[in-house]
Sequence to fold (773 residues):
Amino acid sequence: MARYVIRRLIATIPTILGVTIVVFMFLRLIPGDPAIAMLGEHATEENVSRVREQFGLNRPTFLDREALKQGDFKGFINTQYFIYLGRLLRGDLGDSIHRRIPVAATLMQRFPATMELAFFSMFVAIIIGVPVGIISAARRNSILDSTTMVGSLIGVSMPIFWLGVMLIMLFAVILQWLPAGGRLSSSVEFTPTTNFYLIDSLLTFNIPAFVDSFQHIILPAIALATIPMAVTARMTRSSMLDVMQEDYVRTARAKGVTERLVLYRHALKNAFLPIITIIGLQFGLLLAGAVLTETIFSWPGIGKWVYDSILARDYPIVQGGTLLIALIFVLINLLVDVSYAYLDPRIHYD
Amino acid sequence: MPTLTPASIMIERKMTKTTQSDIATIDYAVREHRSLWVDAWRRLVSSRTAQAGLFIVSFLILTTVLAHFFWEYNPKTDLDYTLKLKPPTLIPNEEVPSVHIFGTDKLGRDIFRRVVHGGWNTLMVGIIAVTISLVIGGLLGLLAGFFESIEMTRLEKILLLVFLGGLMGFLPAWIAEQPVQIVLFALLGGAAAMFENFLAGRSARVVLFAAVGLLIGGGLALFVSPYTAIVTGLLGGLIGAALSLQLGGSLFSNITMRAMDIVLAFPSYLLAIAIVAFLGTGLEKGMVAIGIVSIPVFARLVRSSVLSVVQKEYILAAQSVGEGHGRIIFRHIFPNVLSPITVQTTLGIGSAILAAAALGFLGLGAVPPEPEWGAMLGDSYKYLSSGAWWAVVFPGVAIMLIVLGFNLLGDGLRDALDPKMKV
Fold:
């Protein structure tokens, strides 16, 4: 088990290196001079040279063969990519072009907002999706089953930004039950410690803040949870149907175990492996979906910051945000793989 | 005596005792030549979900194509401030003198007209993006899966190693500014494959090839500078050692799939958004970005399907009668992995459309005033607070309908093509 985990960890290193190269290469996609593209046509000489300095734009892209000719081995790899990689290892994602603040610090500060929304949405998706899938499988071909299946198909086909806009229109504009955006009303007094508003307010017994931030998270969470909920329900159903045809389920029924116990003790336990995979995958996609959802609901997380920065051509932020989300995605896939080995003792990885 | 049919003649000749119903059965089978695809089509149209999907998709494609060719629309001149943000009007009145069944948008443009015309862009995105990912991903997956499980022929091995040698040789060649090194390393790769039994499995082989690599890399570079020669020599040694190992198809598969893993490490449309953000906005760029991002989906699917097909007896049979690899791939494997590909293509069009709509919504897709559903939504949702629901509802419904159509169709196809296949 430990050996497998270590091997799996080592196997992710090339992937992570590849990810850094892809994110680094984003800058190469910019048509023309990146420094001018970021600062605009009328940039001052001083600003242009500052940006050039930050990205090492005066250096070669990957390797400096001219420096090598002179015997300068350090200069050989003192290039854009390796400067980028070196900074990355020190946790330095560069500075924002326009506001001149370090990207990494702000990303970390905004990270809890995105995670809170993502976790909450995933929670909603699981507590609704899994039971619905189980019931659909148990009552296969019933009206309930076909309604769920059609409903989940519609859920998967729904553009989440449109759903978000519709939710705002219905619940915030017409009914005025819930706030249209943001994380907290300005009238509520609250100083978060970790930026996870729900947990912070609960731990400090600040009930008004808890209720208010809860109201704020409902609509974006519904919008974000729709697709993973639908996918989870479908996966649970098909996985359950598969397992229910196994011999051990028939045996359990034959020896007189109640249907409820068969369902939860025998079937669900064995059906859970593919469900976990799907949940892991969906969580990664959820983080990507955050760019859209956060934009619509003015949720002050990473996604909205990345979007605003795309419009402002503040590329270090876009690079940093994309890299962070990709790394979390890689980490989640790793966790799913490892949990496989842990949950299913039959699997040997040698 | 029953009527003379091919089946009855066959039976007359071979058997003595046949019943009327036997003849009827065989007759049916002979006359009705039933192929997998005819069968699948029957199963498809008999399923309720597939019917719905087929109806939605063909209806939307038909209206879109008809509108594109027969209903003139110039987005550049479409502008009428007097009709700004009017709700749906079915009967012309004094305020709104013309019929607008979906209402008008912020520039007084008829939303119905723009929704119908916007379908063209949406379909183009779906088709082009999926074609990119299908062709590239499918081919990579096919080759990766095939050579992972079937021993390469000598010629294929030589070709692969020549290619790899040249590819790896590119690095020292670039550093030393000597393009000739690419050719030499390619030749070294060819030699490694040609003499694969020479000192097979011994460390002497590795040392020998590493030494040759060192000479190629370092020797030539001495003319440039001694420091360059040190680096390229080391690289050449490594390349030589790598080439000396008896590498086969699994290497190709490994390289391909690791590259796919890197792309898969990004949540798909976040990568598309990032690519377009840096490349500059535009529908064409969006299509290409979405296409590239979904290459791994196809590569993985095709590879795993090929891996399961390759185990079948008929592949072994084809190999044992001496059929060439190209023939096996295209005559035996490709037709048998076609059903998962068909399903994924259908579903892929749906998700490509969703991704493109998301890009349009964020203002990174179609350039205004070009009609595109996602962009129309992004344009209008700010006016929601002033009550202009129609500008947001109809483009959104259009996106949802077409994606739903493709998803229903894909689901139906999955059941029709392979009843055993799962979600």
